[in-house]
Amino acid sequence: MDLAYFLRLLFRNWLLILISLIIGVAAAVLVTANTPPKYAAAITMMAKTTKVNKLDVVTPVSLQQVKSYANLLSSRRLISRIVDTEAEISAVQQNIAAQAIPDTLLLQATVSNADPVRAKQLAGALGVEFAKMVDEMERLNPKKPSGVTVMVVDQPTVPSAPVSPRPLVNVAYGALIALFVGVGSIFLRDRLDTTVKSSEMLQRLSQSYTLGLIGYEKAARRRPLIAGDGASSPRSEAYRSLSANLRFIDIDRQRKSLVITSCLPHEGKSSTAANLAITLAQAGRRVIVIDGNLRRPRMQDYFGIEDMVGLTDVLLGKVGLGEAIHRRVDLGLHVLPSGQIPPNPSELLGSRRMGHVLEELAKSFDMVIIDTPPLPAGTDAATLAAACDGAILVVRYGKTRHEHVLHAKELLSSVGARMVGTVLNAVPARARRCDDGYGHGAESQTKREAMVPVSG
User: Has UniProt tagged this entry with the keyword GTP-binding (predicted)?
Assistant: First the structure.
C-alpha cells in the first residue's frame, strides 16, 4: 500500500474524521467546562548553614541535604502542622509540588487550591512551618542554635489566573486524540476489511484489466436496463466506457463471444451482460445476448420476453436455433432466452450441441454475450468460458472478498478459460471520485486504464 492509497482512503472517509474531530473537541470543551479551576501559589526558600568546623570555616549545606528537604516539604508530618483534619492533610498533600532547584540551595513549593486566597495562605504557612521543622531537626543540642536555617526568598502571592483547566491545551489534546482514534480506526477497518473497494485492488487480485466501474444507483434494481436512461446518464456512460475498453484488449485477436460471470450471486452480472449488449448494439454492432443461466434465468424478464422457448429447447433439439431467437428492434439486438429450466444444466451447457450453437452464432453476429450463473454455483460458467473467447468477471463493491476473486480466477484457469477483464459494480459516488481511472466521458483516461499492465 502506497501513500496515494492511504490518502484516497482518508479522503473517502473524511466525514468520519470530521465527526471524530467534532466529538473530540466537544468532549474537551465539556470536560473543561465541568472542571473546577485551580490556583497555584508558590514560595521559594533557601537553606543556608551556620555550622563552623575546627578551622572556623563555614560548612555549606550539601545538595543532597537540599533534595532531602524537598521531600520533607510534601510530607504528612509537615502538612499536619498547617491543617487539622485527616481529609485536609490528604487533599493538601496531593496538591503540593516541591522541588530542589538544580545546582542551587533553593527550594520551591507550589500549593494548588480552588480558592486563590487559600492557596496563598497554605503556601505561606508551609514556608513558616518548614523553617521551624528544619530548625528542630538540625538542632543537635536544644540549648544551642541550629546549624541550618531556612529563609524565604520569594513570598507567595494571591494568583490572578487559574493554572487549570487550560481550555486551549485541552481542546488541542482532544482534537489530537480524536484524530488519532479516527484515522487509526479507518486504517484498522481497512486492514480487517477484505472486500474489494478499488479498481487497483481488483486488478492486483485478478491479474487482469479493470474494464469498467459501474456506479451504484437505487433505481437499478427496479430498472436494471439502461434503455430508458438518457444518453448522458452516469450508467449509460459507464457502460459505453466498458464497451470501448473491450476494443483495447488483444487488438490483434478479434473476440466474438464473451461470458459474463461473477464470484457470488446478486453481484449484477446479468444486468451487466444485458447493458453491455445494449451498448454494443447502440454502437452499430450485431449483438446477441444468451441467457446461459439455466438455474436462475433473468434475461426473459429483463427484455420482456413471454415465449418460454429458448436455449434449453434448442439443445434438446425441440426447436431450431432461429425459432428460439427473439429480436428487440427497439434495442437493435437479439436475445436467446434460457427456455425451460432443466434438471441437468451443466450437461446441456457442456454438450457438443452447445458448441455448435456458439459456432453458428459467432458466424452470424459480431458479438455473442452469455450470462451465466456465478462460478462457484457449478461448472456451468467455467464450461461456457472455456468454450468462448473469454470471460468478464463482475465484482460487487464492498461485498466480494479478496478470496472470492482469487477462487474465481483459479476456477477459470483450471479449465483453460481466460479472464479478459473485470467490472467493479455498484460503486458508491464517493468511491468513484477517489478511484483512479474513473470519469464520466473521460475516454482517454479509461483507455489508459485498460491498457496499463498489472504490476507485481
Answer: no
Q: Where are the domains of the chain?
A: 3-35+165-189, 39-154, 196-451
The cell for 171 is 481542546
CB 454 within 8 A of CB 204: yes
We find that the CATH architecture of domain 196-451 is: 3-Layer(aba) Sandwich (3.40)
Distance CA 336, CA 325 (A): 5
The pLDDT tens digits along the chain (456 residues) read: 578 878 888 888 899 999 999 999 999 999 999 999 999 999 999 988 766 555 555 567 788 888 888 999 999 999 999 998 999 999 999 999 999 999 888 999 999 999 999 999 999 999 999 999 988 888 767 677 677 888 999 999 999 999 999 999 999 999 999 999 999 999 998 888 999 988 989 999 999 999 999 999 887 888 899 987 777 788 999 999 999 998 887 666 778 999 999 999 999 999 999 999 999 999 999 999 999 999 999 999 999 998 789 999 999 999 999 999 999 989 999 999 999 999 999 999 999 999 999 999 999 999 999 999 999 988 999 999 999 999 999 999 999 999 999 999 999 999 999 999 999 999 988 777 666 444 333 333 334 443 333 333
Same fold, 39-154 and 196-451: no
CATH classification for the domain delimited by 39-154, as one of 3.10.450.750, 3.30.70.1130, 3.30.1120.10, 3.40.50.2000: 3.30.70.1130
